[in-house]
Write a structure and sequence with these properties.
WH-like_DNA-bd_sf; HTH-type transcriptional repressor YtrA; single chain; mainly alpha; about 120 residues; transcription; DNA-binding transcription factor activity; two-stranded antiparallel sheet
């Protein structure tokens, strides 16, 4: 079983969706430094994706310094994977863009959008 969930949606590359889910789990603390990261084989089998896609995800996470390979242990989450504010903001970029586009389609003002976000923030706090 994977330590994070991926909800596949049409119209976006599988690679991007898996990478986003993995980064989100790491940045949000669901996967902590020292935790094991699934092998390429496990990723491909559990998510039913091409092993090359799983390899590409793992390679990208290594390039970004979020995971490292330890002989005899496999891939683990690195100490440097602790979330930086910039990484957290990066995770929201796509969602923010979609929100702004939808607000513009509905002809809402920036103030209307800010009020709506503020209200939802209060409701969840």
């Amino acid at each position: 079983m994977l330590p994070f969930k991926v909800q596949f949606t049409q119209g976006r590359p599988v690679y991007e969706q898996v990478l986003f889910a993995a980064k989100k789990a790491i940045v949000c603390g669901q996967l902590k430094p020292g935790d094991a990261f699934p092998s390429v084989r496990v990723l491909s089998q559990e998510l039913r994706i091409n092993p090359n896609t799983a390899q590409k995800v793992s390679a990208r996470l290594r390039e970004e310094g979020l995971i490292e390979v330890k002989p005899g242990l496999g891939s683990i989450i690195t100490e440097s994977a602790r979330a930086l504010k910039s990484q957290k903001k990066e995770l929201l970029e796509r969602e923010l863009e979609r929100l702004v586009v939808e607000a513009k389609k509905l002809k809402l003002t920036e103030g209307d959008l800010q009020d709506a976000v503020r209200q939802h923030w209060k409701n969840l706090s």
